[in-house]
Give the backbone structure.
Amino acid sequence: MRLSSPELLVDITGLKELSGIRVQNGVLRIGALTRHCDIERSTEVARHVPLLAQAVVHVAHVAIRNAGTLGGSIALADPAAEYPACALALDATFVIAGASGERRVAARDFFRALYSTALGSGELLLAAEFPLLEPGYRSAFIELARRHGDYAIVGVAAHVRVERSMMSDLRLAYLGVGATPVRARRAAAALEGKVYGPQVVAAVQDALGKDIDPMPDLYHSGATKLHLARVLTGRALAALAQ
Ligand SMILES: Cc1cc2nc3c(=O)[nH]c(=O)nc-3n(C[C@H](O)[C@H](O)[C@H](O)COP(=O)(O)OP(=O)(O)OC[C@H]3O[C@@H](n4cnc5c(N)ncnc54)[C@H](O)[C@@H]3O)c2cc1C
């Protein structure tokens, strides 16, 4: 994107240790060099992190998914990208390595500002660790783009627990509405302990205005984006309730 002009370019593609998807210690660990197409085809991802499986088909086009990586997307931190919002919704953890060793950073502390993350100079993202899907939980990923494969205008990553029609522990993370992915905690609280229905959906959509104040882009005002976010939220809740 010509955002920077590095004097030195280091190709990390050959670091096999940074690639792969495996369940370990109660999480699904996805290496930073794992390509989008591998995430798309992974039965482990579909089984343990279905939100990511739903999101990956929205990442660009097949040609780009054949080359781009999870780590590249997370490190780039485009606010309209799919993985950062999924990571935020699922409370994922990022494993980072530098000269002084390894450290782990929660997704909520990782995305700092536009294209800016907790990665320090000289640090490498090794992997992302996603909690395994727990019984009773469901996920829905929905986004609106001008054409399929374009970066989203607005999108939502949603995850919830459903027990005897009652919904709880809703997580809503939005892409395309700010400088970073944004978690909507007040909107989520409006659903806590309730059964899905039109009034509950309206309460969540209403509360969303207290969580997000979308920045305009070249084509859409902030008000339009908030409206779209509310519409997508309604669709996501409907999908979760099914
Ligand atoms: C036409 C087009 C459409 C696209 N549409 C979408 C879309 O809809 N949604 C979406 O999410 N993405 C989209 N992308 C971006 C795509 O998902 C890329 O995969 C993503 O930008 C990362 O690319 P990459 O893995 O090659 O990383 P690179 O481009 O090589 O790296 C991106 C940045 O991250 C750094 N980096 C990479 N890996 C690491 C690491 N392991 N540790 C630390 N830093 C690292 C690099 O230094 C660089 O600064 C699109 C790209 C194109 C060209």
The chain has two domains: 17-131, 137-241. The first helix runs from residue 36 to 41.
